[in-house]
Design a protein that fits this description.
Elements: E1 11-16, E2 28-33, H1 38-50, E3 55-58, E4 64-66, E5 71-77, E6 86-89, E7 92-96, H2 101-110, E8 113-114, H3 126-131, E9 135-136, E10 139-140, E11 145-151, E12 157-161, E13 178-185, E14 187-188, H4 191-208, H5 228-234, E15 241-242, E16 245-247, E17 255-257, H6 263-281, E18 290-292
Parallel strand pairs: 2-5, 3-5, 4-18
Antiparallel strand pairs: 1-2, 6-7, 7-13, 8-14, 9-10, 11-12, 11-13, 15-16, 16-17
The structure holds flavin-adenine dinucleotide.
């Protein structure tokens, strides 16, 4: 019996993971933990250390492809109130790592604070956004971060100032640590102007992305100075299917999935796109989504 089996209120075994992802794909987690407090999170991590179980942090599953066989070890999801709180004091926003970015954006826009509104339409949690430095043409979340509180796999709490987080294009140095809280610095602005920018961003996303289909956002990172979507489109791959998934007709860097899609279908389509883009353009595409395990 694992020490995790004794944490019955917060740990489940063989939990299907597909419902927790935007692609709605993937097998179960050996263990699935939803700690309600930092103490409970540390208790889960302690069990995982003692039993050498791999820890996987799940946000909202918006940038994630989980393989059909599922994930061994323990998947941890931070969705309790302690991890989702949003507090605004002046221009500083303190937010839990499990809070939805969309919720933080509405709260800050309503408070007349600018800085996040152009991230509207990016699904996921604040933890996921910071770990992957989510963003778009107008900027990335990393530029608004003052500091982040993480729990390391050893169970220690550390405060990392922004300059130590190593924000880069769709990446950071957060590594295996768990973001439990972040401090963001925003600025005051005319609420009407902020709302106008938010609406404009949202309309642009709605017209350029397949938002009514199941996807994980952009599959590949943009190579320096190039657009992965344009390279895929120019290779004639829009609409290409493998099994029950296809390259989106609306945005070529999105793969959309359907009821009978398997993760294996998506992985095969990813390989096909990579090899065709490499043959046609001589460019090696790098994955933006995370594949578990
Ligand atoms: C329709 C659609 C549109 C999208 N548009 C954009 C876009 O414009 N720009 C963009 O950047 N992305 C976009 N994405 C991708 C996705 O929204 C972002 O990557 C988002 O930040 C992922 O957050 P998440 O909570 O869902 O993370 P998950 O997908 O759950 O996890 C992603 C990674 O973050 C890690 N992680 C999650 N939470 C934590 C935490 N608390 N501590 C440490 N690590 C953590 C996970 O371990 C994993 O490695 C889009 C996705 C979709 C489905």
């Amino acid at each position: 019996m694992s020490c995790l089996d004794s944490l019955t209120e917060i740990v489940r075994k063989d939990e299907p993971l597909a419902p927790y992802t935007w692609l709605k794909l993937g097998g179960p987690a050996q263990y699935f933990a939803e700690p309600r407090s930092i103490d409970e999170l540390c208790a889960v991590l302690k069990c995982c250390r003692e039993e050498e179980l791999t820890v996987h942090i799940l946000g909202d599953g918006a940038n994630l492809l989980i393989r059909d066989d599922g994930v061994s070890g323990c998947v941890v999801r931070l969705n309790g109130p302690e991890f989702t709180e949003v507090t605004i004091e002046g221009n500083t926003v303190t937010v839990g790592g499990g809070a939805l970015l969309s919720h933080v954006i509405s709260r800050t826009v309503a408070a007349g604070l600018t800085g996040l509104e152009e991230l509207s339409g990016i699904p996921g949690t604040v933890g996921g956004a910071i770990a992957g430095n989510a963003g778009g043409k107008s900027g990335d979340i990393g530029t608004q971060v003052i500091s982040v509180d993480v729990i390391t796999l050893d169970g220690n709490r550390e405060t990392l100032p922004a300059e130590l987080i190593g924000f880069n294009y769709r990446s950071s140095h957060i590594g295996s640590s768990i973001i439990v809280c972040a401090k963001l610095q925003l600025r005051e602005d005319d609420p009407q102007e902020i709302t106008k920018r938010l609406r404009k961003t949202w309309i642009m996303k709605r017209t350029s992305q397949p938002l009514t289909s199941q996807s994980a956002g952009c599959i590949f990172k943009n190579p320096p100075g190039l657009s992965a979507g344009a390279l895929i489109e120019q290779a004639g791959l829009k609409g290409t299917r493998v099994g029950d998934c296809e390259v989106s007709d609306i945005h070529a860097n999105f793969i959309v999935t359907h009821e009978n899609t398997t993760s294996q279908d998506v992985l095969k389509l990813i390989d096909l796109v990579k090899s065709q883009v490499s043959d046609k353009h001589g460019v090696n595409l790098e994955l933006e989504i995370k594949v578990w395990p």
